[in-house]
Amino acid sequence: MNSLSIAVVIPSFNHERSIERCLQSVLDQRETNWTCIVVDDCSSDRTVEIATRIAKVDDRVSVVVNERNLGLVGNHNRCLEVAHGDLVKFVHADDWLLPDCLDKLAGCFVDPAVTFALGGRRVEGGEDWEFGRLNDPLDWSRGSIDGAALLNEYVSRGGYGNWFGEPSAVMFRSQTVETVGGFSGLLTQALDTELWLRLIGAGAAARVADELSVRVHSLGTATERNRKGRTYWLDGVWVLLALSWNEVLPVPVRLRAKVYAARALRRALIEDWRGLRVEDRRAQLRDLMLPGRKTRFRRSLVLTRNGVHAGR
After folding, report:
1. Model confidence over 232-244: pLDDT tens digits?
2. What fold is seen in the domain 1-96?
3. What is the pTM of this model?
4. Helices of type H across the chain
């Protein structure tokens, strides 16, 4: 059994068709040092009923229902707020874990420098899914990669792309989240990548090559809704701006990130805004262009744990 405790968190909203399979995959883990919290965002179906029934059988499982609907970003941050363990493991309610997932990912944190770990994953139902393609160019042969070096490489390659996978594919230290803050509500699709980069920058990253989780892509997912609505059109700009503000990077790298952010904004204004509602486009541009965007970004990361603000 791993010596570090693992908090498995499952954000859910109307997942009655998949929540039992998701929870069963947690119960089937070979690693046993875990607790699991389903954080439900006011589902109108039987999600809470099914999860509560399972929680009554195994006291490692509990269910939290939000007082009001927080939306995707708010519910993910709520998961971080209620996660009490040395390590945090997300599982989306329509995904599931393979039996060695917790054991193998937790093993990466034997190295105290590692703050973030990712594992191989399989995508079902979205072979042509643009956000599901990993374009990881890194050499993991030495086991882990220094965070500042990885961020430097990310910027040098243009600061674009999914190198790490979705929340169901990764694990990270709870203490590091308290330092760097949670998911930013200023992004709609790349909010996980942006957080992963901050977590990695605080230490080092490790990878398990084995397939450890299954990601389900279907027409009902938030990712698919984002793709159709193109609400993610400024996400790349925010990711690069966040890197330009990250003090673990040398000044020349941060300046390069800022230049790439300006290029990404130009490309977004020329190509990526089509299909957006005018009011949505104006609101997102206002957040980005008005003075004080760095302060707004950092405020968007703040988590509250037991009444104490965490993150910056």
Report:
1. 789 999 999 999 9
2. Spore Coat Polysaccharide Biosynthesis Protein SpsA; Chain A (3.90.550)
3. 0.92
4. 19-27, 47-57, 71-82, 101-107, 147-156, 174-180, 191-201, 222-229, 235-244, 251-267, 278-289, 293-299
